[in-house]
Specification:
Layout (H helix, E strand, L loop, with lengths): L7 H19 L3 E13 L5 E4 L5 E9 H5 L7 E5 L6 E6 L5 E2 L5 E6 L2 E17 L2 E2 L6 E9 L2 E7 H6 L3 E3 L2 E2 L6 E9 L6 E2 L4 E10 L2 E13 L5 E6 L2 E8 L1 H5 L7 E5 L6 E6 L1 E3 L4 E7 L2 E8 L3
């Protein structure tokens, strides 16, 4: 018989607090407010991928006591869209106030848009090669040689069309500034298409081997030969010699004798007169010509004496 009166003091205090709270809330003005709230996508089937633009937020109108609405913080109101029934193709999903989570005392009165269109594709996995990249210049006298990545390829996952368009997986650039030997660095992997993701490996070890640059060799005072001079004509070059710079491997350049490098001008078809003509060079296949100095000489052609 005494149970209803146990802890009567606490019960009366609770009742008084509830009454005060009710009076405080009842005295507040009921207002409406527009909010931009995040859209949370749930239950996407494992064999389906979102393709194209993916909505991240929607607009809602909320109603409640002015104090309650003023206390709303980021994430207190969230729209939730269940995608468990999604299948490949363009789909339309209705959005209703029932799909918006809000704190007690906050009523969702409107959702905009009332439906959301999304496109889905079948999920696909494909192995793509890893393409290493470098940044900077090696030490003087060296060039970038072989580049390798470990792993050499990784699997990417995403919408079928995007996976089929992709050709490679990129690496974060490896800094090679001033390097004269082998550079090895662990770098992050990535893909340009935001709808794709790397299945497992997130990093790769990139090895960059620097190699000696092709050497240069300068041959001075190489005579300029005038070829195919016409009958009864005499030709002279001014200056009669040029400097030739060759580039190639050190071993290849060492095998070339100076006399094997021939500077010449073909004057075939030219009659008596003065001409400014380009100089050409014949050289072995072990080297290439990078500079002829001067590259143009004056050629004077006169008639010979009978």
């Amino acid at each position: 018989m005494m149970w209803p009166f146990r802890h009567i003091g606490l019960k009366l205090l609770s009742l008084a607090l509830a009454l005060l709270l009710w009076m405080a809330v009842a005295g507040e003005e009921i207002v409406e407010r527009g909010l931009r709230v995040p859209l949370e996508l749930q239950q996407l089937p494992a064999n389906v991928e979102l393709s194209g633009e993916v909505p991240t937020a929607i607009d809602v109108r909320v109603r409640g006591a002015s104090g309650a609405l003023s206390r709303l913080g980021p994430g207190d109101v969230v729209a939730v869209l269940d995608l468990r029934g999604a299948r490949p193709g363009r789909r339309l999903f209705p959005m209703t106030p029932d799909q918006v989570r809000a704190p007690f005392g906050v009523e969702i009165v409107q959702v905009t848009p009332s439906a959301i269109a999304m496109t889905f594709e079948t999920s696909e996995t494909r192995s793509l090669p890893v393409l290493p990249s470098v940044e900077g210049r090696p030490a003087p006298g060296y060039v970038v040689g072989t580049l390798t990545a470990d792993p050499a390829s990784v699997e990417v996952v995403g919408p079928e069309s995007a996976v089929r368009r992709a050709t490679e997986v990129l690496t974060e650039p490896v800094l090679i500034a001033g390097a004269a030997g082998r550079v090895s660095e662990t770098v992050t992997l990535g893909v340009l298409d935001p709808t794709l993701r790397i299945k497992s490996a997130r990093t790769a070890v990139v090895n960059v081997q620097m190699e000696p640059a092709p050497a240069e060799r300068t041959l001075r005072n190489r005579p300029v030969h005038l070829r195919t001079v016409g009958a009864n004509l005499v030709a002279q070059a001014d200056p009669p010699v040029v400097t030739v710079t060759l580039r190639g491997s050190r071993e290849g350049l060492a095998r070339i004798a100076p006399d094997e490098v021939s500077a010449f001008i073909d004057v075939g078809g030219l009659g008596a007169g003065s001409y400014s003509l380009d100089v050409h060079v014949d050289v072995e296949q072990d080297a290439g010509v990078t500079k002829i100095d001067p590259s143009t000489v004056q050629v004077r052609i006169t008639r010979g004496q009978h």
